[in-house]
Description:
- The structure is a homodimer.
- By secondary structure, chain A is an alpha/beta fold.
- Chain A has 13 helices and eleven strands.
- Among the domains of chain A are: about 1-90, Winged helix-like DNA-binding domain superfamily/Winged helix DNA-binding domain (Arc Repressor Mutant, subunit A); about 165-270, Periplasmic binding protein-like II (D-Maltodextrin-Binding Protein, domain 2, 3-Layer(aba) Sandwich), CATH 3.40.190.10.
- The first copy, chain A, has helices at about 5-20, 20-30, 35-45, 60-85, 100-105, 110-115, 130-140, 175-180, 185, 200-210, 225-235, 245-255, 280-295, and strands at about 50-55, 60, 95-100, 120-130, 145-150, 155-170, 195, 220-225, 240-245, 255-260, 265-275.
- The longest helix of chain A has 23 residues, at about 60-85.
- The radius of gyration of chain A is 23 Å and the shape is elongated.
- The interface between A and B is large, with 36 and 36 residues.
- Chains A, B: Belongs to the LysR transcriptional regulatory family.
- Chains A, B: It comes from Streptomyces cadmiisoli.
Amino acid sequence: MTAELPLDQVRTLLAVVDEGTFDAAAAALHVTPSAVSQRVKALEQRTGRVLLLRTKPVRPTESGEVVVRLARQLARLERDARADLGMSGEGEPTRVSIAVNSDSLSTWFLPALARVPAELRLCFELRREDQDHTAALLREGLVMAAVTSSSVPVAGCSVHPLGTMRYVAAARRDFAGRYLRGPVEQALPDAPVVVFDRRDDLQDGFVRRLLGGAGGAGPLRHYVPTSEGFVDAVAAGLGWGMVPEVQAEPLLRSGRLVHLAPDRAVDVPLYWQQWKLDSPALAAVAEAVTRTAEQTLRPR
Amino acid sequence: MTAELPLDQVRTLLAVVDEGTFDAAAAALHVTPSAVSQRVKALEQRTGRVLLLRTKPVRPTESGEVVVRLARQLARLERDARADLGMSGEGEPTRVSIAVNSDSLSTWFLPALARVPAELRLCFELRREDQDHTAALLREGLVMAAVTSSSVPVAGCSVHPLGTMRYVAAARRDFAGRYLRGPVEQALPDAPVVVFDRRDDLQDGFVRRLLGGAGGAGPLRHYVPTSEGFVDAVAAGLGWGMVPEVQAEPLLRSGRLVHLAPDRAVDVPLYWQQWKLDSPALAAVAEAVTRTAEQTLRPR
Lengths: 300, 300
């Protein structure tokens, strides 16, 4: 494919996507806006496809995403080659961009990154993203790797299982005393609940399983879209919620939280997805991440 | 304004924005897509303005945002009136949507919400947003209030100062021993640094002020876009960073972190912006938030 796609045109497309407009890309590349426009048009004629939606900012089409990913992978290979040749100066650390789901980011993921040897001079660019968005980021090449709960490989990526994260149903002790006095199956569907965001189905799914398939958590629901905020909200007594076991553990031990259904936990499997690319930087990160995950997550 | 804008058209516009497409709005409103399209066109003719960009999903234009905000405020007033009339059933709690900056959300904000009387049966929908986006959310009426660092009122909103959040330059003890041995002004510009995201200027601004106006933090920078992840990254020794004093305090006391420039802190003022709207729910939240802020933030 690269043999047929002129690299200056591929790089120009990337610049337009990164800068958002043809004018900004022209400024970044030190060429005229009309040169930028001509190169993108030439690339579209060559591929026979519309590559950019001319919105503000511009957005790549599905075909455009393929070319943008190619451009980013080429840039990465070039940088790795320069590093191998000793051409990477002091001022140019190697950037590794990774999408991480929120609960991993607030529990085991940063200790994993701290294990990557400092001599590699890597810079981490972390993005906290939900499932759907993560796939788009990998596809478009905006991140090189991701911790995700989906085992379906994104095009051009490999997948490696990391282990499972366990969630337990928990509530503040006095909250449970007030709202959850009867059998948990009866009380839970009416009690105030804390939910991460509109896509978070953990609480509803838990109640559905308790009730044998129907219903969900109650209508009085608070949306708190950060991992620690979520635990704080449960600990403050705003509602019950499915809390990652590692975060619930100290609060359960101290008696601040109570476990609502000790025999029923929800296990979410996590996976490492990364570009199929022979990059030493990426390999070092994958090694540290998979090793830490093995030690901190539950086995599948 | 409302006298001149037919309410069914205003509500239809809101449905299109919320559902993303004309077809989905038609399904939600139980009318045909062509009825939806006609109402939006009629509203555009009446206002003499394009209100929607026909993208996928559709997006409101600047004029469209004004109408969307109006629609949401009308819905809110209607809901409050029904609650006052005792028409709000058990199943319909009052929803209060608030945008909160990340550091507030992980420190003082949830204890504030826990102080809102439970009898009000409010549901909180929190959004963690950066500055620029928060203004858009208020303007478009997607949130009713926001904790922000901007004192410039968004159109249709009132502003109330909350106090200031103090940030201190901190690093892990062994990190400081390795990278920051000389005078801090000389060592800091070359040391690895942790930055929240691409818009976070706290670290660069701190170094610029140290150096008297020029330069910034070093090129080896890690982007960690969650508040607790940020503190964890500094505590794991990935780099130095500007940490909220309340989060740094216990780590400084235990000796895990060291204070890099004890006589130089950065104070960020915070403000409460909310719709100018006589809503009892909103007033109760504003009361709890301003009172907690008074007790936990530094005075201006």
